[in-house]
Amino acid sequence: MADESKAKGNAAFSSGDFNAAVTHFTEAIDLAPSNHVLYSNRSAAYASLNKYSEALADAKKTVEIKPDWSKGYSRLGAAHCGLGQYGDAVSAYKKGLEMDPNNEALKSGLADAQAAAARSRAGPPPMNPFGDAFSGPEMWAKLTADPSTRAFLQQPDFVKMMQEIQKNPSNLNLYLKDQRVMQALGVLLNVKLRGGTGAEDEEMPESPPERKQPEPRKEEKKPEAQPEPEPEPMEVSEEESEAKKRKAEAIKEKEAGNAAYKKKDFDTAIQHYTKAIELNDEDISFILNRAATYLEMGQYEECIKDCEKAVERGRELRSDFKMVAKALTRKGTALVKMAKCSKDFEPAIESFQKALTEHRNPDTLKKLNDAEKAKKDLEQQEYYDPKLADEEREKGNEYFKQQKYPEAIKQYTEALRRNPNDPKAYSNRAACYTKLGAMPEGLKDAEKCIELDPTFTKGYTRKGAVQFFMKEYEKALETYQEGLKHDPSNQELLDGVRRCVEQINKASRGDLSPEELKERQAKGMQDPEIQNILQDPVMRQVLTDFQENPKAAQEHTKNPMVMGKIQKLVSAGIVQLR
Which SMART domains match (predicted)? Predict the structure, then answer.
């Protein structure tokens, strides 16, 4: 509230409304009676109104509150000058210069005060009958108020003449031939004067022709006019000035810290960032930079503290949401570095998730995904127990014998959680899925079983059985044959081969019923491999030759690759050989 009234006072002062300025500064003083700047500004406003006693009181109060502030003594000297107390003014200006020897305002004020003191000791200047009419700001007020002279104030040469007369009333003799000056003199003396032409009420021209000003007589020495104290510009508070200075210093410290960080001189970087934070706690980038340095140094707890501080301070200051997100991401990174078990990843994941709600950054998203994967892998490692896995698999076997396949699947799944590298558990669960008609799940488990142990024949029998039930006889035949490479005498694999050959030959002989043929063709057309064969231009020519060119067809039968594709089409019911 005090700052608001102060701002209004400054604006009023700048526009020349000194009474309003006094009012606003008084309101501000009521709200902040210990603010020396407010008394200083009101002193200047009072001086502008020629109320030098009030200006002096405020200047004394300024010095009382802030005795080491040179501006207060400038106000004090100006007020003393206005009251004609030149000795006191000289003392005040000298006191201010002791604190600020290079202050130009104090130097100028001291010179004016000393000159005025010398004139006062020399005695009063010769009496001029018009001297009082031109003294003080009242002259300009009267000329502005009178309609007959108001327009003259817009004419620079007239204003210059009146300023010369105000400085030295004796200069009036130089300008008596100018009718505007005579008109102004009449207004100031409140009488009507005849102009130089003898016409009593001659109308003054709006814009008289410019004339060369007569030079003052060399033999006449102009007496120096008494300096009139001028109000100085409104001051920003010392606190504001100091804050700007501290911010600039903080930026320098940050830049020095960045340079040290690039050189990997982390201890020096920490010192500079810490100094920057002390100088300006309203820029969280300083805190974030220090957190990044702690992260590089492996001091993760210090990094986390700084990140939490940056988030808290950033929300208080309503900082850019990207900066808050960066702090949360950096905190998550430090937590990941400290993680030793799966549960340690939970606060890191939470921190990354919060960062993404502030700003969706691809780097943060990747860190979140990596943390979730690491947590899952650790959970599996922590849960790993081959002995318990074997016990769970045996329980599943008991349920399988009892034809309780869902219960068996549950036990096999638990066994795989305890030991995800057990091919037997995948094989047994594949059998359960097959019994329940969940062929895709059964096929997936059978393939995983073979992947973990390519020599485990049960994996091939499980996979072949699933493919056979899915009526993919060619694929099932390939699976059984692959298994026989590892165990040529395995009866289950041999039986699988026999069943597949029977189904394939059945299609070759045309023994399929119309319904079976239609079903097999529909299934074959959905097979990507069959689709590729039919779209192959070479195979399309081969099929045409089989129908129209027996000689060419005979040559094609000698190509095992071509015949393998033909056999696939036959098995799928797409082609029939007669």
Answer: STI1 (SM00727), TPR (SM00028)
